[in-house]
Amino acid sequence: MTTEETNVDLKEVETNVDLKEVETKDDAEPKEKEEDEDCAPVAADADATEADVSEADLDQEEQEKLPMTWGEGEGHRAVEAPSAGGAEPGATGEKNGSVKLKIPEEETEEVKFTGLTKEELMRVAGTPGWVRTRWALLVVFWLGWLGMLGGAVLIVLQAPRCRDLPAINWWNEGPLYQVGDIQAFSDTRDLKGVEQKIGSLSQLKVRGLVLGPVHVAPADDAMSLRFEEVSSEAGSLEQFKSLVQAAHKKGISVVLDLTPNYQGTSGPWFSNTSVTSVAERLKSALVFWMKEGVDGVQLSGVERVAAVVPTLWADIRAIVQNGTDEGPDKRVLIGITEQSSAEEVSSLLSSSGVDLLLSGVLRPPAADPSQSLQLLYSSHSQSQLAWSLGGPAGGHLASVGGAALLRLHQLLLLTLPGTPVFNYGDEIGLMDEDTKFPRMLWDSEEELNGTLQEERVERLSLRRFFQTLSELRVKERSLMFGDFLLLSNSSSSSSSSSSLAFLRVWDQSERYVAAFNFAAAESAVLQLVDVALPPQAVVVLSTNSSALPGDSSVDLKELRLGPQQAALLRFPYTG
Protein backbone atom coordinates (compact mmCIF):
# COMPACT_ATOMS: atom_id res chain seq x y z
CA MET A 1 0.00 0.00 0.00
CA THR A 2 1.40 3.40 -1.01
CA THR A 3 1.36 6.62 0.94
CA GLU A 4 -1.11 8.20 -1.51
CA GLU A 5 -3.61 5.38 -0.88
CA THR A 6 -3.22 5.89 2.86
CA ASN A 7 -4.02 9.60 2.50
CA VAL A 8 -7.14 8.79 0.42
CA ASP A 9 -8.55 6.44 3.08
CA LEU A 10 -7.90 8.99 5.82
CA LYS A 11 -9.83 11.57 3.79
CA GLU A 12 -12.71 9.09 3.41
CA VAL A 13 -12.94 8.70 7.19
CA GLU A 14 -13.01 12.47 7.66
CA THR A 15 -15.66 12.78 4.94
CA ASN A 16 -17.92 10.25 6.72
CA VAL A 17 -17.67 12.17 9.95
CA ASP A 18 -18.48 15.45 8.19
CA LEU A 19 -21.53 13.90 6.50
CA LYS A 20 -22.87 12.75 9.83
CA GLU A 21 -22.51 16.25 11.19
CA VAL A 22 -24.34 17.69 8.20
CA GLU A 23 -27.18 15.15 8.52
CA THR A 24 -27.49 15.96 12.18
CA LYS A 25 -27.76 19.65 11.46
CA ASP A 26 -30.34 19.06 8.73
CA ASP A 27 -32.49 17.00 11.09
CA ALA A 28 -32.22 19.68 13.72
CA GLU A 29 -33.54 22.59 11.53
CA PRO A 30 -37.18 21.25 10.99
CA LYS A 31 -37.30 20.29 14.61
CA GLU A 32 -36.59 23.93 15.57
CA LYS A 33 -39.46 25.10 13.35
CA GLU A 34 -41.85 22.77 15.14
CA GLU A 35 -40.61 23.89 18.56
CA ASP A 36 -43.69 25.94 19.29
CA GLU A 37 -45.97 23.11 18.52
CA ASP A 38 -44.50 20.51 20.77
CA CYS A 39 -41.69 21.50 23.16
CA ALA A 40 -41.17 18.09 24.75
CA PRO A 41 -40.56 16.15 21.55
CA VAL A 42 -38.26 18.89 20.33
CA ALA A 43 -36.16 18.69 23.45
CA ALA A 44 -35.95 14.94 23.11
CA ASP A 45 -34.89 15.22 19.49
CA ALA A 46 -32.25 17.82 20.38
CA ASP A 47 -30.86 15.57 23.08
CA ALA A 48 -30.67 12.72 20.59
CA THR A 49 -28.95 14.89 18.04
CA GLU A 50 -26.32 16.03 20.56
CA ALA A 51 -25.77 12.43 21.62
CA ASP A 52 -25.29 11.40 18.01
CA VAL A 53 -22.81 14.20 17.44
CA SER A 54 -20.91 13.34 20.60
CA GLU A 55 -20.91 9.70 19.65
CA ALA A 56 -19.57 10.55 16.20
CA ASP A 57 -16.87 12.76 17.73
CA LEU A 58 -15.87 10.00 20.15
CA ASP A 59 -15.79 7.46 17.33
CA GLN A 60 -13.51 9.76 15.35
CA GLU A 61 -11.12 10.31 18.32
CA GLU A 62 -10.98 6.59 19.08
CA GLN A 63 -10.26 5.81 15.46
CA GLU A 64 -7.41 8.32 15.42
CA LYS A 65 -5.90 6.69 18.53
CA LEU A 66 -5.97 3.21 17.04
CA PRO A 67 -2.87 1.95 15.13
CA MET A 68 -3.36 1.34 11.48
CA THR A 69 -2.05 -1.70 9.63
CA TRP A 70 -2.29 -2.76 6.07
CA GLY A 71 -3.54 -5.98 4.75
CA GLU A 72 -0.99 -7.92 2.87
CA GLY A 73 -3.32 -9.41 0.33
CA GLU A 74 -5.67 -6.69 -0.89
CA GLY A 75 -3.99 -3.55 0.35
CA HIS A 76 -7.04 -2.33 2.45
CA ARG A 77 -6.71 -0.77 5.88
CA ALA A 78 -7.95 -2.71 8.92
CA VAL A 79 -8.60 -0.73 12.09
CA GLU A 80 -8.46 -2.91 15.20
CA ALA A 81 -10.18 -1.92 18.44
CA PRO A 82 -8.19 -1.96 21.62
CA SER A 83 -8.69 -5.00 23.76
CA ALA A 84 -10.22 -4.93 27.17
CA GLY A 85 -6.83 -4.89 28.85
CA GLY A 86 -5.72 -1.77 26.95
CA ALA A 87 -3.33 -3.63 24.70
CA GLU A 88 -3.57 -3.22 21.00
CA PRO A 89 -3.71 -6.49 19.16
CA GLY A 90 -1.27 -6.77 16.30
CA ALA A 91 0.40 -3.51 17.23
CA THR A 92 3.63 -5.26 18.39
CA GLY A 93 4.53 -2.40 20.63
CA GLU A 94 4.19 0.44 18.11
CA LYS A 95 3.04 3.84 19.32
CA ASN A 96 -0.34 5.26 18.31
CA GLY A 97 -0.37 6.72 14.87
CA SER A 98 2.55 4.67 13.56
CA VAL A 99 2.06 2.90 10.27
CA LYS A 100 3.76 -0.35 9.31
CA LEU A 101 4.44 -0.55 5.63
CA LYS A 102 5.64 -3.58 3.80
CA ILE A 103 7.03 -2.78 0.42
CA PRO A 104 7.48 -5.81 -1.76
CA GLU A 105 10.99 -6.19 -3.12
CA GLU A 106 11.27 -5.79 -6.80
CA GLU A 107 12.71 -8.77 -8.43
CA THR A 108 15.71 -7.84 -10.55
CA GLU A 109 16.98 -10.14 -13.11
CA GLU A 110 20.80 -10.65 -12.81
CA VAL A 111 22.66 -9.95 -16.00
CA LYS A 112 25.69 -12.15 -16.63
CA PHE A 113 28.48 -11.20 -19.03
CA THR A 114 29.57 -14.23 -20.94
CA GLY A 115 32.14 -12.48 -23.14
CA LEU A 116 32.94 -13.29 -26.68
CA THR A 117 33.12 -16.80 -27.94
CA LYS A 118 36.28 -18.23 -29.38
CA GLU A 119 34.95 -17.88 -32.90
CA GLU A 120 34.04 -14.25 -32.31
CA LEU A 121 37.47 -13.50 -30.85
CA MET A 122 39.23 -15.09 -33.78
CA ARG A 123 37.13 -13.07 -36.22
CA VAL A 124 37.95 -9.81 -34.37
CA ALA A 125 41.65 -10.65 -33.93
CA GLY A 126 42.07 -11.15 -37.61
CA THR A 127 40.78 -7.74 -38.59
CA PRO A 128 43.36 -5.35 -40.11
CA GLY A 129 42.97 -2.81 -37.29
CA TRP A 130 43.87 -5.23 -34.53
CA VAL A 131 46.75 -6.67 -36.54
CA ARG A 132 48.27 -3.21 -36.96
CA THR A 133 47.72 -2.46 -33.27
CA ARG A 134 49.49 -5.63 -32.19
CA TRP A 135 52.44 -4.95 -34.42
CA ALA A 136 52.69 -1.39 -33.15
CA LEU A 137 52.67 -2.52 -29.50
CA LEU A 138 55.29 -5.19 -30.25
CA VAL A 139 57.58 -2.65 -31.89
CA VAL A 140 57.15 -0.21 -29.00
CA PHE A 141 57.96 -2.95 -26.47
CA TRP A 142 61.17 -4.00 -28.18
CA LEU A 143 62.28 -0.42 -28.75
CA GLY A 144 61.74 0.32 -25.05
CA TRP A 145 63.59 -2.82 -24.01
CA LEU A 146 66.55 -2.02 -26.27
CA GLY A 147 66.58 1.54 -24.99
CA MET A 148 66.78 0.41 -21.37
CA LEU A 149 69.50 -2.09 -22.23
CA GLY A 150 71.51 0.57 -24.02
CA GLY A 151 71.08 2.97 -21.10
CA ALA A 152 72.30 0.36 -18.62
CA VAL A 153 75.35 -0.41 -20.77
CA LEU A 154 76.11 3.31 -21.07
CA ILE A 155 75.88 3.79 -17.31
CA VAL A 156 78.25 0.89 -16.72
CA LEU A 157 80.74 2.16 -19.28
CA GLN A 158 80.72 5.73 -18.01
CA ALA A 159 80.82 4.84 -14.29
CA PRO A 160 84.31 4.84 -12.76
CA ARG A 161 85.65 1.34 -12.34
CA CYS A 162 86.37 0.18 -8.81
CA ARG A 163 89.94 -0.86 -8.18
CA ASP A 164 90.53 -4.49 -7.43
CA LEU A 165 91.38 -5.05 -3.80
CA PRO A 166 95.05 -5.84 -3.32
CA ALA A 167 96.18 -9.25 -2.16
CA ILE A 168 97.00 -8.97 1.52
CA ASN A 169 97.98 -11.47 4.17
CA TRP A 170 96.51 -11.92 7.61
CA TRP A 171 99.38 -9.98 9.21
CA ASN A 172 98.43 -6.93 7.15
CA GLU A 173 94.90 -6.84 8.57
CA GLY A 174 95.68 -5.43 12.02
CA PRO A 175 98.39 -4.67 14.57
CA LEU A 176 100.77 -7.28 15.96
CA TYR A 177 101.13 -7.45 19.75
CA GLN A 178 104.42 -8.65 21.21
CA VAL A 179 104.69 -10.33 24.60
CA GLY A 180 108.41 -10.83 25.06
CA ASP A 181 108.27 -11.82 28.73
CA ILE A 182 105.48 -14.20 29.73
CA GLN A 183 106.02 -13.74 33.47
CA ALA A 184 105.84 -9.94 33.23
CA PHE A 185 102.65 -9.95 31.18
CA SER A 186 100.24 -12.24 33.02
CA ASP A 187 98.94 -12.38 36.56
CA THR A 188 99.72 -16.09 36.85
CA ARG A 189 103.19 -15.51 35.32
CA ASP A 190 102.75 -18.31 32.75
CA LEU A 191 101.16 -19.10 29.40
CA LYS A 192 97.85 -19.84 31.09
CA GLY A 193 97.73 -16.22 32.22
CA VAL A 194 98.35 -15.06 28.65
CA GLU A 195 95.40 -17.15 27.49
CA GLN A 196 93.20 -15.39 30.04
CA LYS A 197 93.98 -12.03 28.39
CA ILE A 198 93.08 -13.06 24.84
CA GLY A 199 89.68 -11.38 25.15
CA SER A 200 91.33 -8.08 26.07
CA LEU A 201 93.59 -8.29 23.00
CA SER A 202 90.62 -9.05 20.79
CA GLN A 203 88.98 -5.80 21.93
CA LEU A 204 92.04 -3.91 20.65
CA LYS A 205 91.59 -5.53 17.20
CA VAL A 206 94.96 -7.26 17.54
CA ARG A 207 95.49 -9.54 14.56
CA GLY A 208 98.60 -11.39 15.69
CA LEU A 209 100.17 -12.30 19.03
CA VAL A 210 103.98 -12.62 18.99
CA LEU A 211 105.07 -14.79 21.93
CA GLY A 212 108.36 -15.40 23.60
CA PRO A 213 110.88 -16.77 23.18
CA VAL A 214 109.71 -19.53 25.53
CA HIS A 215 112.12 -22.35 24.64
CA VAL A 216 114.97 -23.58 26.81
CA ALA A 217 118.14 -21.59 25.94
CA PRO A 218 120.80 -21.12 28.65
CA ALA A 219 122.74 -17.91 28.07
CA ASP A 220 125.59 -18.24 25.56
CA ASP A 221 125.40 -22.06 25.70
CA ALA A 222 124.65 -23.42 22.27
CA MET A 223 125.07 -27.05 23.34
CA SER A 224 122.23 -26.78 25.89
CA LEU A 225 119.82 -25.17 23.42
CA ARG A 226 116.48 -27.05 23.19
CA PHE A 227 114.09 -25.42 20.69
CA GLU A 228 111.27 -27.90 21.16
CA GLU A 229 110.99 -27.67 24.94
CA VAL A 230 108.97 -24.98 26.74
CA SER A 231 110.83 -23.37 29.62
CA SER A 232 109.34 -24.12 33.01
CA GLU A 233 109.42 -20.39 33.75
CA ALA A 234 106.98 -19.79 30.88
CA GLY A 235 104.70 -22.76 31.46
CA SER A 236 104.20 -26.03 29.61
CA LEU A 237 103.57 -27.35 26.14
CA GLU A 238 99.96 -28.12 27.07
CA GLN A 239 99.45 -24.53 28.15
CA PHE A 240 100.90 -23.37 24.84
CA LYS A 241 98.51 -25.58 22.85
CA SER A 242 95.55 -24.31 24.82
CA LEU A 243 96.66 -20.73 24.25
CA VAL A 244 96.92 -21.25 20.49
CA GLN A 245 93.40 -22.71 20.35
CA ALA A 246 91.93 -19.86 22.41
CA ALA A 247 93.65 -17.25 20.22
CA HIS A 248 92.44 -18.85 17.00
CA LYS A 249 88.85 -18.82 18.28
CA LYS A 250 89.16 -15.04 18.64
CA GLY A 251 90.67 -14.62 15.17
CA ILE A 252 94.16 -13.95 16.53
CA SER A 253 97.13 -15.72 14.96
CA VAL A 254 100.10 -16.81 17.10
CA VAL A 255 103.70 -16.15 16.09
CA LEU A 256 106.50 -17.77 18.09
CA ASP A 257 109.86 -16.07 18.62
CA LEU A 258 112.58 -18.71 18.18
CA THR A 259 115.65 -16.49 18.45
CA PRO A 260 118.31 -19.00 19.60
CA ASN A 261 120.40 -17.08 22.16
CA TYR A 262 117.77 -14.66 23.44
CA GLN A 263 119.19 -14.57 26.97
CA GLY A 264 122.88 -14.33 26.08
CA THR A 265 125.25 -11.51 25.20
CA SER A 266 127.27 -13.12 22.42
CA GLY A 267 124.65 -12.45 19.78
CA PRO A 268 121.32 -13.99 18.82
CA TRP A 269 123.01 -16.84 16.95
CA PHE A 270 125.87 -17.38 19.41
CA SER A 271 129.26 -17.22 17.69
CA ASN A 272 129.92 -17.51 13.96
CA THR A 273 131.22 -21.02 14.42
CA SER A 274 127.93 -22.19 15.85
CA VAL A 275 125.61 -20.61 13.29
CA THR A 276 125.59 -23.65 11.04
CA SER A 277 124.76 -26.20 13.75
CA VAL A 278 122.14 -23.93 15.31
CA ALA A 279 120.48 -23.34 11.94
CA GLU A 280 120.34 -27.09 11.30
CA ARG A 281 118.67 -27.70 14.65
CA LEU A 282 116.27 -24.85 14.01
CA LYS A 283 114.98 -26.53 10.86
CA SER A 284 113.72 -29.59 12.70
CA ALA A 285 112.29 -27.39 15.46
CA LEU A 286 110.31 -25.38 12.91
CA VAL A 287 108.59 -28.52 11.65
CA PHE A 288 107.66 -29.38 15.24
CA TRP A 289 106.13 -25.98 16.04
CA MET A 290 104.27 -25.77 12.74
CA LYS A 291 102.50 -28.99 13.69
CA GLU A 292 101.55 -27.44 17.02
CA GLY A 293 99.58 -24.77 15.19
CA VAL A 294 101.80 -21.68 15.20
CA ASP A 295 101.13 -19.18 12.40
CA GLY A 296 104.65 -17.85 11.99
CA VAL A 297 108.11 -17.40 13.43
CA GLN A 298 110.13 -14.37 14.51
CA LEU A 299 113.93 -14.36 14.45
CA SER A 300 116.49 -11.75 15.46
CA GLY A 301 119.80 -11.22 13.66
CA VAL A 302 118.51 -12.42 10.28
CA GLU A 303 121.32 -10.61 8.46
CA ARG A 304 123.92 -12.86 10.08
CA VAL A 305 122.32 -16.21 9.35
CA ALA A 306 121.32 -15.13 5.82
CA ALA A 307 124.91 -14.12 5.08
CA VAL A 308 126.77 -16.96 6.81
CA VAL A 309 124.60 -19.95 5.80
CA PRO A 310 122.48 -18.81 2.86
CA THR A 311 121.48 -22.35 1.91
CA LEU A 312 120.24 -23.17 5.39
CA TRP A 313 118.49 -19.82 5.52
CA ALA A 314 116.66 -20.66 2.30
CA ASP A 315 115.55 -23.94 3.90
CA ILE A 316 114.30 -22.09 6.99
CA ARG A 317 112.32 -19.72 4.84
CA ALA A 318 110.78 -22.55 2.86
CA ILE A 319 109.65 -24.42 5.98
CA VAL A 320 107.96 -21.32 7.40
CA GLN A 321 106.58 -19.62 4.32
CA ASN A 322 105.44 -22.62 2.28
CA GLY A 323 102.15 -24.18 3.25
CA THR A 324 101.86 -27.88 4.02
CA ASP A 325 99.04 -30.38 4.01
CA GLU A 326 98.68 -29.93 7.77
CA GLY A 327 98.74 -26.14 7.51
CA PRO A 328 97.90 -24.80 4.04
CA ASP A 329 97.48 -21.22 5.27
CA LYS A 330 100.44 -18.96 4.73
CA ARG A 331 102.69 -18.32 7.70
CA VAL A 332 104.70 -15.21 8.39
CA LEU A 333 108.46 -14.97 8.82
CA ILE A 334 109.38 -11.83 10.79
CA GLY A 335 112.96 -10.64 10.94
CA ILE A 336 114.49 -8.22 13.45
CA THR A 337 117.52 -6.05 12.74
CA GLU A 338 119.34 -3.34 14.59
CA GLN A 339 119.77 -1.36 11.37
CA SER A 340 118.23 2.14 11.39
CA SER A 341 119.24 3.48 7.99
CA ALA A 342 116.37 3.36 5.51
CA GLU A 343 118.74 2.35 2.70
CA GLU A 344 120.23 -0.55 4.72
CA VAL A 345 116.82 -1.69 5.93
CA SER A 346 115.47 -1.63 2.38
CA SER A 347 118.43 -3.67 1.12
CA LEU A 348 118.08 -6.26 3.91
CA LEU A 349 114.35 -6.56 3.34
CA SER A 350 115.02 -7.47 -0.28
CA SER A 351 117.96 -9.83 0.31
CA SER A 352 116.68 -11.72 3.34
CA GLY A 353 113.27 -12.59 1.88
CA VAL A 354 111.43 -12.14 5.18
CA ASP A 355 107.78 -11.14 5.09
CA LEU A 356 108.20 -8.34 7.64
CA LEU A 357 111.32 -6.64 8.97
CA LEU A 358 111.40 -4.71 12.25
CA SER A 359 114.08 -2.04 12.36
CA GLY A 360 115.08 1.20 14.03
CA VAL A 361 114.10 3.44 11.11
CA LEU A 362 111.60 5.41 13.20
CA ARG A 363 113.49 5.17 16.48
CA PRO A 364 114.27 8.61 17.96
CA PRO A 365 116.35 10.61 17.44
CA ALA A 366 115.95 9.62 13.81
CA ALA A 367 116.36 12.11 11.02
CA ASP A 368 113.40 13.53 9.12
CA PRO A 369 111.06 10.49 9.00
CA SER A 370 109.45 11.61 5.76
CA GLN A 371 112.49 10.68 3.69
CA SER A 372 112.76 7.20 5.24
CA LEU A 373 109.05 6.61 4.79
CA GLN A 374 109.10 7.64 1.15
CA LEU A 375 112.15 5.48 0.35
CA LEU A 376 110.74 2.33 1.90
CA TYR A 377 107.26 2.86 0.46
CA SER A 378 108.55 3.45 -3.05
CA SER A 379 110.92 0.45 -2.92
CA HIS A 380 108.61 -2.23 -1.49
CA SER A 381 105.03 -3.34 -1.38
CA GLN A 382 103.33 -1.95 1.69
CA SER A 383 102.41 -5.52 2.68
CA GLN A 384 106.16 -5.98 3.45
CA LEU A 385 106.51 -2.88 5.62
CA ALA A 386 106.41 -3.11 9.41
CA TRP A 387 106.61 -0.18 11.81
CA SER A 388 107.82 -0.14 15.38
CA LEU A 389 109.75 2.25 17.61
CA GLY A 390 111.11 -0.07 20.26
CA GLY A 391 110.94 -3.61 18.99
CA PRO A 392 110.60 -6.61 21.31
CA ALA A 393 113.75 -5.77 23.28
CA GLY A 394 114.15 -2.09 22.44
CA GLY A 395 111.77 -0.74 25.06
CA HIS A 396 108.20 0.45 25.27
CA LEU A 397 106.66 3.22 23.22
CA ALA A 398 106.23 5.66 26.09
CA SER A 399 109.87 5.23 27.13
CA VAL A 400 111.46 5.26 23.68
CA GLY A 401 109.44 8.11 22.22
CA GLY A 402 108.48 9.95 25.40
CA ALA A 403 105.26 9.83 27.39
CA ALA A 404 104.11 13.20 26.00
CA LEU A 405 104.29 11.82 22.46
CA LEU A 406 102.59 8.50 23.18
CA ARG A 407 99.28 9.29 21.46
CA LEU A 408 101.15 10.90 18.56
CA HIS A 409 103.23 7.75 17.99
CA GLN A 410 100.18 5.51 18.31
CA LEU A 411 98.45 7.55 15.60
CA LEU A 412 101.58 7.47 13.44
CA LEU A 413 102.08 3.68 13.59
CA LEU A 414 98.38 2.92 13.01
CA THR A 415 98.04 5.17 9.95
CA LEU A 416 101.28 4.41 8.07
CA PRO A 417 101.08 1.94 5.14
CA GLY A 418 102.10 -1.46 6.43
CA THR A 419 101.81 -3.46 9.65
CA PRO A 420 102.10 -1.71 13.04
CA VAL A 421 103.87 -3.69 15.77
CA PHE A 422 103.48 -2.84 19.47
CA ASN A 423 104.92 -4.11 22.72
CA TYR A 424 102.59 -5.22 25.47
CA GLY A 425 101.50 -2.19 27.48
CA ASP A 426 102.02 0.32 24.67
CA GLU A 427 98.26 0.81 24.58
CA ILE A 428 98.27 2.16 28.17
CA GLY A 429 101.61 3.99 28.21
CA LEU A 430 103.58 1.36 30.15
CA MET A 431 107.03 2.72 30.99
CA ASP A 432 110.37 0.92 31.17
CA GLU A 433 111.90 1.22 34.60
CA ASP A 434 114.91 -0.92 35.47
CA THR A 435 114.09 -3.45 32.80
CA LYS A 436 112.81 -3.61 29.26
CA PHE A 437 110.12 -6.00 30.47
CA PRO A 438 108.18 -4.23 33.26
CA ARG A 439 105.13 -5.78 34.88
CA MET A 440 101.95 -5.25 32.91
CA LEU A 441 99.26 -3.18 34.64
CA TRP A 442 95.77 -4.63 34.53
CA ASP A 443 93.13 -2.25 35.84
CA SER A 444 90.25 -3.60 37.90
CA GLU A 445 87.08 -2.10 39.31
CA GLU A 446 88.48 -1.59 42.78
CA GLU A 447 88.31 1.87 44.33
CA LEU A 448 91.50 3.93 44.17
CA ASN A 449 92.31 7.28 45.71
CA GLY A 450 94.39 10.27 44.74
CA THR A 451 97.25 9.75 42.32
CA LEU A 452 96.47 6.09 41.74
CA GLN A 453 92.98 6.96 40.56
CA GLU A 454 94.28 9.67 38.23
CA GLU A 455 96.84 7.28 36.74
CA ARG A 456 94.17 4.68 36.12
CA VAL A 457 91.92 7.22 34.42
CA GLU A 458 94.80 8.20 32.13
CA ARG A 459 95.58 4.56 31.28
CA LEU A 460 91.96 3.89 30.38
CA SER A 461 91.88 7.02 28.23
CA LEU A 462 95.02 5.92 26.38
CA ARG A 463 93.55 2.48 25.82
CA ARG A 464 90.34 3.94 24.35
CA PHE A 465 92.38 6.14 22.01
CA PHE A 466 94.40 3.12 20.85
CA GLN A 467 91.28 0.98 20.42
CA THR A 468 89.48 3.66 18.39
CA LEU A 469 92.43 4.01 16.05
CA SER A 470 92.82 0.25 15.66
CA GLU A 471 89.13 -0.21 14.87
CA LEU A 472 89.29 2.63 12.34
CA ARG A 473 92.28 1.08 10.60
CA VAL A 474 90.50 -2.26 10.27
CA LYS A 475 87.29 -0.66 8.98
CA GLU A 476 88.59 1.97 6.52
CA ARG A 477 90.10 0.75 3.26
CA SER A 478 92.14 3.90 2.80
CA LEU A 479 93.93 3.18 6.08
CA MET A 480 94.13 -0.59 5.57
CA PHE A 481 95.78 -0.68 2.15
CA GLY A 482 95.31 2.77 0.62
CA ASP A 483 97.94 4.65 -1.38
CA PHE A 484 100.43 6.75 0.58
CA LEU A 485 101.27 10.33 -0.43
CA LEU A 486 103.51 12.67 1.50
CA LEU A 487 102.12 16.20 1.67
CA SER A 488 104.42 19.19 1.45
CA ASN A 489 104.09 22.08 3.85
CA SER A 490 104.38 25.45 2.13
CA SER A 491 104.36 27.40 5.40
CA SER A 492 107.58 29.27 6.15
CA SER A 493 106.78 29.51 9.84
CA SER A 494 107.00 25.76 10.51
CA SER A 495 110.11 23.63 10.33
CA SER A 496 109.75 20.72 7.93
CA SER A 497 111.87 18.49 10.19
CA SER A 498 109.48 18.88 13.13
CA SER A 499 106.23 18.33 11.21
CA LEU A 500 104.86 15.60 9.00
CA ALA A 501 101.68 15.16 6.96
CA PHE A 502 100.57 12.45 4.57
CA LEU A 503 97.47 11.36 2.69
CA ARG A 504 95.94 7.88 2.59
CA VAL A 505 93.66 7.21 -0.40
CA TRP A 506 91.90 4.17 -1.77
CA ASP A 507 89.71 4.31 -4.87
CA GLN A 508 86.31 5.87 -4.04
CA SER A 509 86.59 5.45 -0.26
CA GLU A 510 86.89 8.33 2.17
CA ARG A 511 90.31 9.95 2.28
CA TYR A 512 92.42 10.51 5.40
CA VAL A 513 95.07 13.09 6.22
CA ALA A 514 97.41 12.47 9.16
CA ALA A 515 99.28 15.53 10.45
CA PHE A 516 101.96 15.65 13.17
CA ASN A 517 103.92 18.30 15.06
CA PHE A 518 106.90 16.76 16.89
CA ALA A 519 108.14 20.08 18.34
CA ALA A 520 108.07 20.14 22.14
CA ALA A 521 107.51 23.86 22.61
CA GLU A 522 106.39 25.38 19.33
CA SER A 523 103.06 25.29 17.58
CA ALA A 524 102.95 24.56 13.87
CA VAL A 525 100.87 26.00 11.06
CA LEU A 526 100.71 23.56 8.16
CA GLN A 527 99.73 24.89 4.77
CA LEU A 528 98.75 21.72 2.96
CA VAL A 529 98.15 22.35 -0.72
CA ASP A 530 97.71 19.55 -3.22
CA VAL A 531 95.43 18.81 -6.14
CA ALA A 532 94.08 15.84 -4.23
CA LEU A 533 93.07 17.95 -1.22
CA PRO A 534 89.87 19.92 -0.69
CA PRO A 535 89.90 23.26 1.13
CA GLN A 536 88.61 21.73 4.36
CA ALA A 537 88.46 18.41 6.21
CA VAL A 538 86.78 17.03 9.31
CA VAL A 539 88.66 16.06 12.47
CA VAL A 540 88.31 12.35 13.25
CA LEU A 541 90.78 12.06 16.12
CA SER A 542 93.15 14.44 17.82
CA THR A 543 95.76 13.95 20.53
CA ASN A 544 94.40 17.17 22.05
CA SER A 545 90.63 17.05 21.81
CA SER A 546 90.22 20.47 23.44
CA ALA A 547 92.26 22.16 20.68
CA LEU A 548 90.82 20.12 17.82
CA PRO A 549 87.52 18.57 18.90
CA GLY A 550 86.12 15.66 16.97
CA ASP A 551 83.81 16.32 14.00
CA SER A 552 85.01 19.92 13.76
CA SER A 553 85.96 21.32 10.36
CA VAL A 554 89.46 22.68 9.76
CA ASP A 555 91.14 24.61 6.97
CA LEU A 556 93.83 22.50 5.32
CA LYS A 557 95.56 25.64 4.02
CA GLU A 558 96.07 26.79 7.58
CA LEU A 559 96.08 23.75 9.86
CA ARG A 560 97.20 24.69 13.36
CA LEU A 561 98.76 22.06 15.60
CA GLY A 562 99.94 22.65 19.12
CA PRO A 563 103.26 21.36 20.49
CA GLN A 564 103.54 17.57 20.21
CA GLN A 565 100.06 17.38 18.76
CA ALA A 566 98.73 15.15 15.97
CA ALA A 567 95.38 14.88 14.21
CA LEU A 568 93.63 12.52 11.83
CA LEU A 569 91.37 14.27 9.32
CA ARG A 570 88.85 12.96 6.83
CA PHE A 571 87.21 14.17 3.63
CA PRO A 572 84.94 12.41 1.12
CA TYR A 573 85.63 11.19 -2.39
CA THR A 574 84.25 13.65 -4.92
CA GLY A 575 84.97 11.92 -8.22
TrEMBL record:
<dbReference type="InterPro" id="IPR006047">
    <property type="entry name" value="GH13_cat_dom"/>
</dbReference>
<feature type="transmembrane region" description="Helical">
    <location>
        <begin position="135"/>
        <end position="157"/>
    </location>
</feature>
<dbReference type="GO" id="GO:1904273">
    <property type="term" value="P:L-alanine import across plasma membrane"/>
</dbReference>
<protein>
    <submittedName>
        <fullName>4F2 cell-surface antigen heavy chain-like isoform X3</fullName>
    </submittedName>
</protein>
<dbReference type="GO" id="GO:1903801">
    <property type="term" value="P:L-leucine import across plasma membrane"/>
</dbReference>
<dbReference type="Pfam" id="PF16028">
    <property type="entry name" value="SLC3A2_N"/>
</dbReference>
<feature type="compositionally biased region" description="Acidic residues">
    <location>
        <begin position="47"/>
        <end position="62"/>
    </location>
</feature>
<dbReference type="InterPro" id="IPR013780">
    <property type="entry name" value="Glyco_hydro_b"/>
</dbReference>
<dbReference type="GO" id="GO:0005975">
    <property type="term" value="P:carbohydrate metabolic process"/>
</dbReference>
<dbReference type="InterPro" id="IPR031984">
    <property type="entry name" value="SLC3A2_N"/>
</dbReference>
<feature type="compositionally biased region" description="Basic and acidic residues">
    <location>
        <begin position="8"/>
        <end position="33"/>
    </location>
</feature>
<keyword id="KW-0812">Transmembrane</keyword>
<feature type="domain" description="Glycosyl hydrolase family 13 catalytic">
    <location>
        <begin position="182"/>
        <end position="473"/>
    </location>
</feature>
<feature type="region of interest" description="Disordered">
    <location>
        <begin position="1"/>
        <end position="106"/>
    </location>
</feature>
<feature type="compositionally biased region" description="Low complexity">
    <location>
        <begin position="80"/>
        <end position="94"/>
    </location>
</feature>
<dbReference type="GO" id="GO:0015823">
    <property type="term" value="P:phenylalanine transport"/>
</dbReference>
<dbReference type="GO" id="GO:0015190">
    <property type="term" value="F:L-leucine transmembrane transporter activity"/>
</dbReference>
<dbReference type="GO" id="GO:0016324">
    <property type="term" value="C:apical plasma membrane"/>
</dbReference>
<dbReference type="GO" id="GO:0015173">
    <property type="term" value="F:aromatic amino acid transmembrane transporter activity"/>
</dbReference>
<dbReference type="InterPro" id="IPR017853">
    <property type="entry name" value="GH"/>
</dbReference>
<keyword id="KW-0472">Membrane</keyword>
<keyword id="KW-1133">Transmembrane helix</keyword>
<dbReference type="GO" id="GO:0015180">
    <property type="term" value="F:L-alanine transmembrane transporter activity"/>
</dbReference>
<dbReference type="GO" id="GO:0016323">
    <property type="term" value="C:basolateral plasma membrane"/>
</dbReference>
<dbReference type="Pfam" id="PF00128">
    <property type="entry name" value="Alpha-amylase"/>
</dbReference>
<dbReference type="InterPro" id="IPR042280">
    <property type="entry name" value="SLC3A2"/>
</dbReference>
